[in-house]
Amino acid sequence: MPGTTPFENDGNAVASRTTVGRRKLTALHAKYSEHTLTTPIQFVGFWSAVALPFLYVPLLMNGLADAELTVFLSLLVCHIVALFAGHSYRQE
Fold first, then answer.
1. CB-based contacts of 86: which residues, under 8 Å, 6+ apart?
2. How many whole angstroms separate alpha carbon 52 and alpha carbon 45?
3. For residues 31 and 33, what is the distance between their CA atoms, to the nearest angstrom?
4. 13-45 per-residue burial string, b: 16 or more CB within 10 A, e: under 16
5. Rg, C-alpha atoms of the chain
6. For the whole model, what pTM was predicted?
7. What are phi and psi of 5, to 5 degrees?
8. Dihedrals φ, ψ of 76, to 5°?
9. Chain centroid to CA 47: how far?
């Protein structure tokens, strides 16, 4: 029918687009997983995420002045980046 949308004409169109999108995402993930730099980056990210909280303690014990606040926020950003980089380390 001329007045209907593709979703009304063919319910499989949405399913096929979703399947194609999932295949592309799976292929991209496989390509990323096979890259030679992936494992070292995940390793460094994981262990940095484990070790960085120990650096918060001296900063927080002395209080956060202007200079320490900048260091603390920078450390917090580094910790977040490390969490994202190392979140899938050794998840097989």
1. 42, 43, 44, 45, 46, 47, 48, 49
2. 10
3. 5
4. eeeeeeeeeeeeeeeeeeeeeeeeeeeeebeeb
5. 23
6. 0.57
7. -85, 165
8. -65, -40
9. 16
Name the token pair of 36: 């030679």
**Spatial separation of the C-alpha atoms in residues 79 and 92, rounded to whole Å:** 23
Place of tokens 């899938």: 88
Per-residue model confidence as pLDDT tens digits over 38-86: 778 888 999 999 999 999 988 888 888 888 888 899 999 999 999 988 8
